[in-house]
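Retro notes (design track)

What went well: tokenization of the new backbones is finally stable.
What didn't: we kept losing track of which sequence belonged to which structure.
Fix going forward: every design gets posted as structure first, then sequence, in one message. First example under the new rule, 117 residues:
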């Protein structure tokens, strides 16, 4: 069970995000991006508080541009949320922690609704 965000590469994206059993919050970021650094502690909190229910991953767009281009990421931070390999939510820009938690809770509700009986 991951309690911290994990850093992944383009090569790991399919395995870690698209094939994940849990919903995945993907943070497309770069080290020089001020708003990215600003939300990093919020993502740490989300990873810890939602451990076992949501996986938080980070993709450095400077080092891994392919997936960012594939998903049309033009501004960072961009947060994409995947459930069962499908992109279900997207947010561009820094976001306050309560809004981030609402986003994750909403995706968890969607994931629960789509679990086969």
């Amino acid at each position: 069970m991951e309690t911290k965000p994990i850093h992944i590469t383009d090569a790991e994206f399919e395995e870690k995000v698209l094939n994940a059993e849990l919903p995945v919050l993907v943070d497309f970021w770069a080290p020089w991006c001020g708003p990215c650094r600003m939300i990093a502690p919020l993502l740490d909190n989300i990873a810890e508080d939602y451990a076992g229910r949501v996986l938080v991953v980070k993709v450095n767009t400077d080092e891994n541009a392919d997936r960012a281009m594939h998903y049309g990421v033009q501004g960072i931070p961009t947060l994409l949320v995947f459930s069962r390999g499908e992109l279900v939510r997207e947010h561009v820009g820094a976001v306050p922690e309560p809004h981030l938690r609402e986003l994750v809770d909403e995706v968890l509700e969607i994931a629960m609704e789509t679990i086969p009986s």
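Added context from the reviewer: The longest strand covers residues 86-92.
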